[in-house]
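Late entry, written up from scratch paper. The run itself happened at the end of the previous shift, but nothing got recorded in the book at the time, so transcribing now.
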Amino acid sequence: MAVIIRAAIQWRIAKWRPLSALSWQNVLQAVLRAFPFAFAFAPTLLMKRGLGVLVPSSVYLCGALYESLFGARPRDGEDTRNTTHALMTLLLAWGVLAFIFFAVQTSVIDKRTRHDSGA
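Output as recorded:
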């Protein structure tokens, strides 16, 4: 799923060429490029009756969304805590990865600008 999301995002933003480091294209490009990696690899530790298991956040969140829409079982406190934890972990990983992508893209733009002005 993350590979399909990444391919769709790359196809959509391939023509964007931000001219400055703080342009909206540069920020949005970093945020969009980081999402598939956070979706695929953000871990969460699920707890149920004192036992824990480490799974990707997206796997748990997709299952929890399905269960909340079509499930007949009521949610308990642990389910709510697990969902909140998985969502916060996913958002934190997305934010950190977006910042890293933004820093790398800004560095590339800065090098390109210095190279173009020096030539």
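Residues 42 and 89 are 6 Å apart (CA to CA).
(Scratch paper discarded after transcription.)
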